[in-house]
Amino acid sequence: MTSPLRLTDIAAQAQVSEATVSRVLNGKAGVAAGTRHKVLAAMDLLGYERPVRLRRRSNGLVGLLIPELTNPIFPAFAQVIEQALAGHGYTPVLCTQTPGGATEDELVEQLEQRGVTGIVFLSGLHADAAADPARYQGLVARGVPFVMINGFNEHVNAPFVSPDDRAAARMAVRHLADLGHERIGLAIGPTRYVPSARKAEGFRAALAELGLPCEEADLQRTLFTVEGGHAAGGALLDRGCTGVVCGSDPMALGVIRAARERGLRVPEDVSVVGFDDSPLIPFTDPPLTTVRQPVRAMATAAVGALLEAVAGNPVQRTEFVFQPELVVRGSTAQPPAAVH
């Protein structure tokens, strides 16, 4: 049984007057869109069911394809994208790939069969330099608007949204070098993936600029998972690296596990830098130093570009690159030699 609406509770939650809440509930004009959204959000948070008159008709379905949900950065992106789409009246359809499940091509086919208005690809096959771009050229030919996040392919005529992966690796290396680290390793995914290749380029460039050694074995290519980080971290620690830069936050947690298995302390003996800064990362032990992806700015830009294309407006078929931010926490410090 639904609880009766209490204007006082909704007004307090939305930080507006009861009169404003009443106007929204009765569908009256004269309420700003932002204020209306605050009132509806307050109702949702308080568990009130929206009156039928407030339920908006959808402008259409928009597919959102993501690789998986175990890495918390993907749900973080999905949440912002879905909020942005809903704010423009579109209904998001979340499609997640799992090992042995539907492929990206199969999911796209299913979305097209349902008449989606457009598609957002997040870290999909467009990020894999070995994948055939013809699948996306086919979408262009069929007139399906789409936008791509985290990955780039010059043979695909679409807007791309990416963080500056080269800059991310460079700022992580410089941070460790400024602390006094001279043996620095990199744990990333396979370099056929554009973000990994770019991080490797930034990593090598930063070490060269600083005059620090960089051997091929200092770059460990593995899976973007805790297990992948654990394997890469073990190899890098055995090579004497005192600082490790990682291609994802789960990989960084795997490196920390590998360090502890060897009786090493983080950050007293080994410093670790992650990448992404997903919501729970500040609460790890130790709190993880990481390079933050500007998720909200990237997701909002991607949705904006998609909806411009949906409206038939010209959209730059180019890559929009966003600057990441180094967030220093407790997993990095001076190396033992510098302390002593």
Labels describing this entry:
340 residues; alpha/beta; 6-stranded mixed β-sheet; 41% helix
If you had to describe this structure to a student in words, what would you say it looks like?
This protein has twelve helices and twelve strands. It is of the alpha/beta class and 340 residues long. Helix 9 crosses helix 10 (249-261).
**Quaternary assembly:** single chain
Distance between the termini: 67 Å
**Low-confidence regions:** none
Question: What does the radius of gyration come to?
Answer: 23 Å
What's the total number of strands?
A: 12
Strand order of the largest sheet: 2-1-3-4-5-11
Helix share bin: 40-55%
Short précis:
With 340 residues, the protein is α/β, with parallel strands linked by helices. It has helices at residues 7-14, 18-25, 33-46, 73-87, 104-113, 134-141, 165-179, 194-210, 226-238, 249-261, 295-310, 336-339, and strands at 60-66, 90-96, 118-122, 146-149, 160-163, 184-188, 219-221, 243-246, 271-276, 289-292, 319-322, 325-327.
